[in-house]
UniProtKB/TrEMBL annotation, chains A, B, C:
Keyword Membrane among record annotations: yes
PANTHER family assigned to the protein according to its UniProt record, in alphabetical order: INNER MEMBRANE PROTEIN, UPF0126 INNER MEMBRANE PROTEIN YADS-RELATED
Record-stated family: Belongs to the UPF0126 family.
Keywords, ordered alphabetically: Cell membrane, Membrane, Transmembrane, Transmembrane helix
A Pfam match: Gly_transporter
Principal localisation: membrane
The keyword Membrane is annotated on this UniProt entry: yes
InterPro entries: Gly_transporter
Domain Glycine transporter: 9-82, 94-166
Protein name: Membrane protein
Protein's cellular compartments: Cell membrane
One cellular-component annotation, GO: plasma membrane
Native organism: Dactylosporangium siamense
């Protein structure tokens, strides 16, 4: 299998896993079939859509029909098979960590290639990885999980910084993608196993300010 | 009346109806006058703004002041006249179905004209039709209605597919727009009359997975 | 100090204040460190990101690292120092009014320069000023404050209209920016002092219509 088609396969597997996560959240909220598929679609492709909007090109999710097809088929399958998907809990988490690694790293490179400087490219890369989950949670009326607990976005961000640094010293793309994506994957799996979390603020606040109304 | 100006009038009527729906939701949530007008504006024009962002052009809602004017005036009128608007329940639903048909079909054609392939163009067309209602519900703290019940987006999607198919065999634009928009309208009205709904998942899930945090 | 660098400093102060507002809201919702910084970042830069997406350029927030740096550092500082930030209530409100004035006015000019006509440019300018707060509230599960009470967006909108009018008669940019931004600032401060609010609808509605599902 060539490098390019390997990347495509991994990409589509990541999209399928993100779609399953979105569809499962939709089923849990008692959405109808359309709602489940729509939330699955946005969970799978929303991060990439945001990336392409920021980079200022037509979103890839609309240009290549295979992405939409994988997201829609996986979401619809999850609608009927969700008890099975639930039993695959750890499998889903492992594949999700792989998807996170790939999406953040390739998102960063796409932003760099579009002329966005490293700091911005890393932020766009991170949004590529977490954007789908954010949109999924907003559509289902939840405060996004990624903002509340566990090491998820931070693992992605370290991958973004690594790939940007490797790219700056002209590492070959397949090498830098693999190294950075594996870093994200390992960090995420260790964080899951050890229940690492980012800290929350030391004391309860005295009340919100809401200055920027 | 020329074809073009007829299309414009229908377009503006659709925008007025969507604005009334948004403003009514804003009044129900006790928003102030500005909030009601803002939610009405986004309900009316949010779908078209998303379409233009995805197609990668400056949103038409900001380029042609007549669209904003119709949305703002209708929303402000709804603010003061909302009991009357409520009494027009069926009138609003009928006009809304017409708006859905027109927006999904013209959105699909705009995406095709911008070089987006059929599958993506259909998804963008559907988002043109449902995007305003989605944003309205997010701004007022609701899980979007379109994700939960009734045949609404699916009717729009069938219209998108029809117009893309008609366009692929070089049907004249006015003909394909009319056929596809009428199809959406009829489907939506029949679904309303017969209380058709998309299915929800067969059994309660055993709990959400949240893998893509 | 040159005009340009003065504008940059005011810009960065505005971003810091908006970031503090977002971070404070995040702390109040018990988000973790990453969540607090992310909400602070979006509160500070979300309005400008929306402006640039609508104007159809790569968002400045990703292109110039200083904006991201100020937003991230301020948000992280607020995470640890939020009791102090809470005590600075009035200081924050005053700086926030200054930020609102600057962002709405410069957002309008950026849209005009990109060829968007005055009405659309004013709406984009207003969204530049209120967009960050909107996104902050959506991310933390609140109906946006700006839609519910007080004179905030309307003050910004008057500034947008003023700067567009001044620009149409070829007033020098520094003069028109200063006049319009001061107008917004004064309106907002008077509204705060006198508890001015926009009206809410006269009677309770008989129930939402939800036509645009």
């Amino acid at each position: 299998m060539s490098e390019l088609s390997l990347l495509l396969v991994v990409d589509l597997v990541g999209i399928a896993v993100f779609a399953a996560s979105g569809a499962t959240a939709g089923v849990a909220k008692r959405l109808d079939l359309f709602g489940v598929v729509f939330v699955g679609f946005m969970a799978a492709l929303g991060g990439g859509i945001l990336r392409d909007v920021f980079v200022n090109v037509q979103p890839f999710a609309f240009v290549d029909w295979r992405y939409a097809a994988v997201a829609v088929v996986t979401s619809a399958a999850t609608f009927w098979l969700h008890p099975t998907v639930s039993r695959l809990h750890w499998t889903v988490l492992v594949l999700d960590a792989a998807g996170l690694g790939l999406f953040t790293v390739t998102g960063t490179l796409k932003a760099l290639d579009a002329g966005i400087p490293p700091v911005g490219a890393c932020i766009i890369g991170m949004i590529t990885g977490i954007g789908g989950g954010l949109i999924r949670d907003l559509l289902t009326g939840e405060i996004p999980t990624v903002l509340r607990r566990e090491i998820y976005a931070v693992a992605g961000l370290l991958g973004c910084a690594s790939v940007a640094a490797l790219d700056a010293v002209h590492t070959q793309r397949p090498v830098s993608i693999a190294l950075a994506a594996v870093l994200v994957f390992v960090l995420r799996m260790v964080a899951l196993r050890r229940n690492w979390s980012a800290p929350t603020a030391p004391t309860a606040p005295t009340g919100p300010q809401n200055p920027g109304e």
